[in-house]
Design goal:
By secondary structure, this protein is of the alpha+beta class. The chain is 63% helix and 13% strand. Strand 10 and strand 11 form a beta hairpin. Helix 6 packs antiparallel against helix 7, helix 9 packs antiparallel against helix 10 and helix 15 runs antiparallel to helix 16.
Length: 471
């Protein structure tokens, strides 16, 4: 077509350069764009090929379009070109650059938004020039008023239309905002199968992939295969996934989808971590109540059972009820010195042992302070150690020693009973609870059979570093 037009122009069939050379150039430009649109339509089932066509169409629209609208279009309407034709030919380099990038398939997955913005900006500029030329040619306005009126018309009519189209093409934010409740539902699912079903359902709703399959182990969401797939990492107990062909195959995954996937994975990770922390807290609180019931309530009820004095029996039961309320409410918040705590325990333990005819040797030499969280632990360790001696040792004397050492404090409970071999004897709940409480105070516990405090039998020694008990 261009060759025939050139021949006609050479034979002076057309009247002047505008019709002889400029008009066919404009028509050729439009023909290329229509051909690119046809290729775009034919590649609707292949997002990657469609992205390459976008590169080609964008490069032609930018390169050739800039040449047409700076040189050809002004000449057609009788205006002076804004740029010399020799310089304007440099715009055609953009076509070659765009084609090279398309062949290299560089970041094809991000082109849809870039192409949308560039093409709509160019369309706006073209409309501005066209309206300005029409006002000058048809209404005979001066150039300055015509340009101002054209700018107002394009601003009020074209820009809102562009925003409406953009929202329809890239509307996914509402789904992301509405997905926080889904995150909570996923984290609070009853079992792993239900949690996985809800996670897959959320990904399908947000990204609308054609297929979700098992993925490879990665550290973060990643666009792969030139945007044909989006890799989702393992999140908490959920395995990694691979999403293929976004928006039912109509487009590629891009950096925006990758960022949204990262946001979703982060929110889900926090939700699952919160649930695990809650479950761990519940388990620890249940274990605390169980240990306190075993170590404190059991020993006090044992003392009430062996007491021959009805008044003392009633006092022990009242103390047991008070301790039970304290265990449930975890109200051990007052700050006591070790001396005050040990004085209270000396009276309680002495009454307990004397009711069964067992003597007590008491040696306390420390002025260290005990923080509130350590009061219950120290009390429980002593009560359980004395209770074990009372129930199992058949002892006649129990010795308790608490003193300072270079590394902190050492608590010793010894008896003159028959003892046992800690290596072979099965460990009951009492010993496990004492070790757990010693560990909570950053300490260690040792159980042995030997001589201590002038007695030979079972010896329980607990050592605490100063940071575990210091105020």
């Amino acid at each position: 077509m261009f060759g025939a037009w050139w021949l006609g122009d050479s034979l002076q069939v057309f009247d002047g350069p505008p019709a002889g050379s400029h008009l066919p150039t404009m028509l050729e430009m439009l023909g290329i764009l229509f051909a690119a649109a046809g290729q775009y339509w034919r590649s609707r089932g292949d997002p990657a090929a469609r992205a390459v066509v976008r590169w080609f169409g964008l490069s032609v629209a930018v390169g050739a379009g800039a040449f047409v609208f700076t040189v050809i279009a002004p000449s057609l309407v009788g205006l002076t070109p804004g740029l010399p034709q020799g310089y304007a030919f440099a715009f055609f380099l953009l076509i070659h650059i765009g084609m090279a990038i398309g062949v290299a398939r560089y970041r094809l997955f991000d082109l849809d938004r870039w192409a949308f913005r560039i093409l709509f900006y160019m369309t706006g500029a073209a409309l501005l020039i066209a309206v300005d030329a029409a006002l000058i040619s048809w209404i005979a306005l001066e150039r300055a008023p015509a340009f101002g009126l054209a700018l107002v018309m394009v601003g009020f009519l074209y820009l809102p239309l562009r925003d409406i189209i953009a929202r329809k093409l890239f509307r996914r934010d509402a789904e992301i905002e509405a997905s926080f409740q889904d995150m909570l539902a996923i984290a609070l699912a009853e079992d792993e199968a239900e949690r996985m079903d809800r996670w897959r359902g959320l990904l399908e709703r947000v990204f609308q992939p054609l297929k979700i399959v098992a993925g490879q182990v990665i550290g973060a969401p990643m666009v792969i295969e030139d945007g044909a797939a989006l890799a989702i990492p393992a999140t908490g107990p959920l395995p990694p996934l691979r999403l293929e062909h976004a928006m039912h195959g109509r487009c590629l995954f891009g950096s925006r989808e990758q960022a949204k996937a990262s946001e979703l994975c982060s929110m889900l990770s926090h939700a699952i971590a919160s649930r695990l922390a809650h479950e761990q807290g519940v388990a620890e609180e249940r274990q605390r109540i169980t240990s306190d019931m075993h170590d404190n309530i059991g020993v006090q009820l044992l003392g009430a059972l062996h007491s021959r004095d009805p008044v003392r029996k009633d006092e022990l039961i009242r103390d047991t009820l008070a301790d039970l309320r304290e265990i449930i409410n975890n109200s051990a918040g007052e700050r006591l010195t070790l001396a005050e705590l040990m004085a209270d325990l000396r009276v309680e333990i002495a009454d307990l042992l004397s009711s069964t005819g067992i003597g007590l040797v008491w040696q306390v030499d420390t002025r260290a302070e005990l923080p509130p969280q350590s009061v219950a632990a120290m009390r429980s360790i002593l009560r359980e150690a004395v209770g074990n001696a009372l129930r199992h040792a058949e002892a006649t004397t129990v010795g308790i020693r608490l003193g300072d050492v270079a590394s902190g404090l050492v608590l010793m409970v010894a008896d003159d009973g028959n003892g046992f071999d800690p290596e072979t004897a099965p460990a009951g709940n009492g010993l496990r609870n004492m070790r757990s409480r010693a560990t909570a105070l950053h300490g260690t516990m040792k159980v042995s059979r030997g001589a201590a405090m002038g007695m030979r039998g079972t010896v329980i020694e607990v050592r605490f570093p100063r940071e575990g008990v210091a105020a």
